[in-house]
Amino acid sequence: MLTLLKLFGTFFEIGLFGFGGGYVIIPLIQEHLVKNNWMSIEEFLNLIAIAEVTPGSISINSATYVGYKVYGFIGSIVATLGVVTPSLLIGLSVAAFFKNGTGDTQQNILKFLSPAVIGLILGSGFTIGFTNITTLINLLTFIIVLLLLIFTDVNPMVIIIVTALIGIVFG
């Protein structure tokens, strides 16, 4: 029972402070999973890869996977409920506030939250990058993909398929 409460509380906290979702939430998930010894850093990176390619948000997919790993089917339900409950509560509260609030207040809130979200995304990118870029071919692939994304209109799906093929050939 204690594990289920800890699982719910951990993912409730992740859901509560994961403003911006997606990549912003990755450092929060990493910190809690490694701190609680639920996963090694290598397992965490595999988790993020799986959460990325499966439908749904990273936070929900991660919660479901970790919950299942820690406590089976019930754990997956508890962790998933833990991560979505804050969004539900905050969404209802914000809806009431924005209904009665002024446009200036709303714009000021978003103006100050946006840089924080960008910083969290960059931080998770560095964490994942430094852990995964371990060979020259990985570094070259990273640089080429970055340049392609910045300077061309190449479809990201094409990049994903090509880099998967590179992984098969050089992996």
UniProtKB/TrEMBL annotation:
Record-level Gene Ontology MF annotations: chromate transmembrane transporter activity
InterPro entries referenced in this protein's UniProt entry, alphabetically: CHR_Transporter, Chromate_transpt
Membrane topology: Multi-pass membrane protein
UniProt keyword terms in alphabetical order: Cell membrane, Membrane, Transmembrane, Transmembrane helix
Chain ranges passing through the membrane: 7-29, 70-98, 110-133, 139-170
Gene Ontology CC terms: plasma membrane
Keyword Ribonucleoprotein among record annotations: no
Any Pfam family matching the protein: Chromate_transp
Cell compartments where the protein resides: Cell membrane
Family designation: Belongs to the chromate ion transporter (CHR) (TC 2.A.51) family.
Entry protein name: Chromate transporter
Highest classification ranks of the organism: Bacteria, Thermotogati, Thermotogota, Thermotogae, Petrotogales
